[in-house]
Design goal:
12 strands, four-stranded antiparallel β-sheet, ATP-binding, 256 residues, Rossmann fold, six-stranded mixed β-sheet, alpha/beta
Length: 256
């Protein structure tokens, strides 16, 4: 994915997002990090064409996505928000079926290809045993996995996730992140997500994009990009980055 000269503003006075150039690697997990209000979720919404940018271009597979129809775009990328809504009486399987809308014509019944895609999405997210349960009966982590399954049923190369672990306890946060990591490895999906937890970004990302005030401050591999100095400059806190016996790096906030 290539982003060039991207500008967006909620108000006419000055741009909220101003990105000269950004390349997001295919087949990787890329996490966008930065303080509240820096433009992380807005950038994701611009990529998903949920917001209209003032200027600039976004290319997927050398196609300018602003020129694609809604159905054409839905075959290339899917997005899952931190909060999603659907009728509570829907089962997981009912919800995942919705992901096939880009391929259906009118009110035609599901094709064999549709059913295969639905079954695969449910299996990849570990929801086979729960697929007939209603959304109202699910835990927060199960419900989020169901929405990810819906996105997978779209059979896209790109999966966008806006703070997928928000409102979940630690167990369900790692359940979702493990699911995302599995999708990247097993389905070779390009995943772009927004996270607040820097340690989770360290652990689950191939690359990170650091944002501040609508601009890209730095991007690259987490171990190279995220330094104690950068974190203090962006978030205003002192931290210590330590390395464990398995060469994993962890960020420890220091008391003032």
């Amino acid at each position: 994915m290539d982003i060039k000269n991207l500008f967006f503003s909620y108000h006419a006075k000055e741009p909220f997002i101003a990105i000269d150039e950004l390349k997001i690697s295919e087949g990787k997990i890329t996490t966008i990090i930065g303080p509240n209000g820096c433009g992380k979720s807005t950038l994701l919404a611009l990529i998903a064409q949920q917001l209209t940018y003032t200027a600039g271009e976004i290319y997927i597979e050398q196609q300018n996505i602003s020129r694609l129809s809604r159905k054409e775009l839905a075959k290339k990328l899917a997005i899952v928000y931190q909060q999603n809504e659907a009728p509570e009486q829907y089962t997981i399987r009912d919800l995942v079926k919705v992901g096939r809308y880009p391929y259906r014509k009118g009110l035609n019944s599901l094709s064999a290809d549709d059913l295969t895609a639905i079954d695969k999405a449910i299996e990849l997210t570990g929801l086979v045993a729960l697929q007939d349960q209603r959304l109202a009966e699910l835990s927060g982590g199960q419900r989020q996995r169901a929405w990810i399954a819906l996105a997978l049923a779209q059979e896209t190369q790109y999966l966008l996730l806006d703070e997928p672990t928000t409102y979940l306890d630690l167990h369900h946060q790692f359940e979702i992140l493990d699911c995302i990591e599995k999708l990247n490895k097993n389905a070779n999906m390009t995943i772009i997500m927004v996270l607040h937890d820097l340690n989770q970004a360290f652990q689950y990302s191939d690359e990170v994009i650091v944002m501040s005030k609508g601009k890209i401050i730095k991007s690259g591999q987490p171990t190279v990009t995220m330094s104690e100095e950068l974190i203090k400059g962006i978030f205003g806190i002192n931290v210590q980055i330590i390395e464990d016996i398995e060469k994993n790096k962890h960020i420890l906030p220091l008391r003032k």
